[in-house]
């Protein structure tokens, strides 16, 4: 007879009945495993152990894995490793309104995880939170498949449909629109010192976002002292930018000769030496005036949005046939430049493995376990095929 649990308990103290621990789950893989876990709880803990040193990521991942595991055993009475695609469609609806409320939703203030009044939810999840939950759950299933623990990912079909429904082409700039943006930046006034400072800052920021494929948070959170030079096997000097990015993951971004020229111009306009010194704490992008405090993500977003809005305004002046393109520019954000960088690099026939390493993109992380691109080759191809051409 199947055993069911009456109430959910936190993952750290959870003890599953034998018939719900997943040892005989219908989705269990039969081949060789890459982890030692024999049951679902141990498998989930192995997945979480990867991010244990990054508190925010760990807590978010634990929360979503915990909710799904508890829902599976408490609500459905079946192990996580027996969940089907249809089960997960039901779970998505459950996230919008966890019922019965007394079982799943905490009342009043937030309770500690060892408090008997603890519950996995604090109310229904908003649409954006539901999507984020399913993204994390998909990552969990994909990892368990890669680890040889599960035979397949029951979310894979849903993920494909979602990708077709929201084509990525809407979130990057084609080369024609990108030329319009650069032309607008080059048209900015430079009569006064402040106007010159604003022009060179915009030019450098867009160079950094596009040539480096950086996230706005990476521009805000890193300094010029992270540029460094080293010689390749042929004795050529190559500059790099060491970036601390999303999830506190470090990566090396090729700083092409073109990028270094723009950096030197920007630094010279700010009264700095052409090249940065090691460990220099000057922010990658500076405020106007004499302040040397890093610009916030919000301030950087505002600069980018203002440039897009200005370029869109100039497009509209050309006539009705430019209205659609202008509207696309008005929707654009700093992250569009990252997508544009990746798309234009791919169009330029840069090896996809090199693009992966340049952008440090999360969706390609597992590929890096099996593919390795030579850093000097990555630098050379990026410099030759991915350019600003001011």
Description:
The chain contains 15 helices and 3 strands. It has 390 residues and is mainly alpha-helical. It folds into 2 domains: 11-166, no CATH class; 171-385, Intergrase catalytic core (hpI Integrase, Chain A). A 3-stranded antiparallel β-sheet has the order 1-2-3. Helix 1 (40-49) packs antiparallel against helix 2, helix 7 crosses helix 11 (297-316) and helix 14 packs across helix 15 (375-385).
Give a quick precis of the structure.
Helices cover 49% and strands 5% of the residues.
Q: What is the topology?
A:
Elements: H1 40-49, H2 55-76, H3 85-96, H4 101-104, H5 127-146, H6 156-165, H7 175-186, H8 193-212, H9 216-221, E1 227-231, E2 237-244, E3 250-255, H10 257-269, H11 297-316, H12 323-331, H13 334-347, H14 352-359, H15 375-385
Antiparallel strand pairs: 1-2, 2-3
Report the CATH superfamily of the largest domain. Answer: Intergrase catalytic core
| Distance between the amino and carboxyl termini | 72 Å
Query: Number of folding domains?
Result: 2
Let me know the average pLDDT. Answer: 86
> Could you describe the largest sheet, including whether it forms a barrel?
3 strands, antiparallel
Q: What is the CATH topology classification name of the largest domain?
A: hpI Integrase, Chain A
Level of helix content? 40-55%
Structural class: mainly alpha
> Spatial order of the strands in the main sheet?
1-2-3
Please give the radius of gyration in angstroms.
25 Å
Overall spatial form: elongated
Residue stretches low in confidence (pLDDT < 50, at least 5 long) are 1-5, 159-169, 364-372
Q: Return the CATH architecture of the largest domain.
A: Orthogonal Bundle
């Amino acid at each position: 007879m199947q055993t069911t649990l009456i109430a959910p308990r936190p993952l750290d103290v959870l003890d599953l009945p034998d018939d719900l621990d997943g040892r005989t789950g219908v989705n269990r893989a039969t081949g060789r495993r890459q982890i030692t876990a024999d049951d679902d709880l141990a498998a989930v803990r192995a997945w979480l152990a990867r991010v244990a040193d990054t508190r925010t990521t760990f807590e978010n991942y634990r929360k979503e894995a915990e909710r799904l595991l508890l829902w599976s055993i408490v609500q459905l009475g079946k192990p996580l490793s027996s969940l089907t695609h249809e089960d997960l469609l039901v779970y998505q609806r459950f996230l919008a309104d966890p019922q019965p409320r007394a079982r799943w939703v905490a009342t009043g203030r937030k309770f500690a995880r060892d408090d008997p009044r603890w519950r996995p939810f604090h109310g229904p999840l908003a649409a954006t939170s539901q999507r984020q939950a399913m993204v994390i759950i998909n990552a969990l299933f994909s990892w368990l498949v890669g680890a040889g623990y599960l035979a397949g990912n029951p979310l894979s079909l849903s993920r494909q449909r979602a990708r077709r429904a929201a084509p990525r082409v809407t979130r990057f700039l084609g080369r024609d629109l990108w030329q319009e943006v650069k032309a607008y930046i080059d048209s900015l006034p430079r009569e006064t010192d402040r106007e010159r400072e604003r022009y060179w800052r915009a030019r450098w920021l867009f160079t950094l976002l596009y040539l480096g494929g950086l996230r706005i948070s990476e521009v805000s959170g890193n300094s010029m002292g992270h540029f460094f030079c080293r010689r390749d096997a042929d004795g050529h000097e190559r500059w790099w930018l060491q970036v601390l990015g999303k999830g506190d993951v470090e990566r090396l971004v090729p700083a092409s000769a073109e990028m270094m020229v723009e950096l030197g111009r920007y630094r010279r306009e700010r009264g700095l030496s052409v090249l940065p010194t090691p460990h220099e704490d000057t922010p990658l992008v500076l405020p106007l005036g004499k302040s040397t405090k890093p610009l916030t993500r919000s301030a950087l977003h505002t600069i980018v949005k203002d440039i897009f809005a200005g370029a869109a305004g100039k497009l509209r002046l050309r006539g009705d046939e430019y209205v659609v393109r202008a509207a696309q520019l008005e929707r654009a954000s700093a992250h569009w430049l990252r997508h544009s960088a990746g798309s234009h690099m791919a169009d330029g026939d840069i090896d996809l493995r090199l693009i992966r390493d340049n952008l440090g993109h999360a969706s390609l992380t597992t590929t890096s376990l099996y593919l390795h691109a030579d850093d000097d080759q990555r630098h050379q191809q990026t410099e030759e095929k991915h350019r600003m051409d001011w």
